[in-house]
């Protein structure tokens, strides 16, 4: 899902870009772009997808300074997340500096190519991520053209739930919805992300999974969370929510400075190879926060 540093919404100083007939607004964001031929608006994330060749363009907006985020995209950091850095360059983009990054990544036996356009300011950043199978590398030029067509508008409504096919109910809790990133909804109790306070992420799979052992897959997915390699599973059990079956995991995690953290993960699977995931983390009041995570999980519902 990310490389520890999370990406964020762009806030160019009151700059508003004009819409054109070719630009398509991206639901849940303040961005528009010219989608390549054959791409349609996605229903499970903010962006566009080409069902035929398995390609997608995903837009992420989150409150993280541009410079610190870009500096986090090192070959070593990316390798730790299963990605290989091919090229990273600074470009001029809409009157400011931006970064273009080319990556490769393997998943479920397929090698994917990624082109990422990263731009923003001292408070916020936007990542426009073009992803396509290596077997369809001929569309790479069109993907890059689409990324570079991206415009940002302060006047555009960016209601995160507009692009959603699922949701949770956090009323009567302290959690606040922040943003939609790659189809995942980010919540925290202090309105910040990353946050030292309890956080909650609710998302779904973009690609199909072939795993027949859902319990094992859930355990492996936990280890892929930021810092997940340090997590020790305390309990794993079957769970059923919204007529979907899956697994609930409660684990003891560690922060980078070796402090304990509660890690809560629920994965719910359908019969089409898709899954939904809920991840909660808290650094104190473990029992209270675990109860809150479990209560919110039971409100999960597909739209």
UniProtKB/TrEMBL annotation:
Domain of life of the organism encoding this protein: Bacteria
According to the UniProt entry, where is the signal peptide? Answer: 1-18
Is Signal included in the keywords of this UniProt record?
A: yes
Keyword terms: Signal
For this entry, the protein name equals DUF1795 domain-containing protein
The organism named in the record is Limnovirga soli
């Amino acid at each position: 899902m990310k490389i520890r540093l999370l990406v964020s919404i762009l806030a160019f100083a009151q700059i508003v870009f004009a819409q054109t007939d070719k630009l398509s607004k991206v639901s849940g964001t303040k961005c528009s772009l010219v989608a390549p031929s054959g791409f349609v608006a996605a229903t499970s994330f903010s962006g566009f997808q080409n069902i035929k060749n398995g390609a997608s363009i995903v837009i992420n907006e989150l409150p993280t300074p541009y410079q610190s985020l870009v500096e986090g995209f090192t070959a070593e950091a990316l390798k730790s997340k299963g990605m290989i850095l091919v090229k990273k360059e600074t470009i001029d983009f809409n009157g400011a500096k931006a970064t273009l990054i080319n990556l490769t990544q393997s998943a479920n036996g397929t090698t994917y190519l990624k082109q990422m356009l990263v731009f923003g300011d001292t408070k916020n950043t936007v990542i426009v991520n073009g992803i396509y199978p290596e077997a369809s590398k001929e569309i790479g030029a069109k993907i890059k053209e689409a990324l570079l067509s991206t415009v940002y508008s302060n006047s555009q409504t960016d209601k995160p739930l507009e692009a959603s096919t699922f949701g949770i109910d956090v009323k009567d809790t302290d959690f606040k919805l922040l943003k939609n990133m790659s189809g995942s909804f980010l919540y925290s109790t202090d309105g910040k992300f990353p946050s030292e306070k309890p956080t909650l992420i609710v998302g779904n799979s973009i690609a199909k999974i072939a795993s027949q052992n859902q319990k094992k897959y859930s355990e492996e997915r936990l280890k892929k969370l930021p810092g997940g390699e340090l997590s020790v599973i305390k309990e794993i059990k079957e769970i059923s929510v919204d007529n979907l079956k899956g697994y609930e995991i409660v684990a003891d995690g560690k922060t980078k400075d070796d402090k304990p953290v509660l890690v809560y993960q629920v994965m719910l699977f359908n019969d089409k190879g898709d899954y939904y995931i809920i991840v909660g983390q808290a650094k104190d009041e473990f029992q209270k926060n675990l109860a809150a995570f479990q209560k919110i999980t039971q409100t999960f519902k597909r739209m």
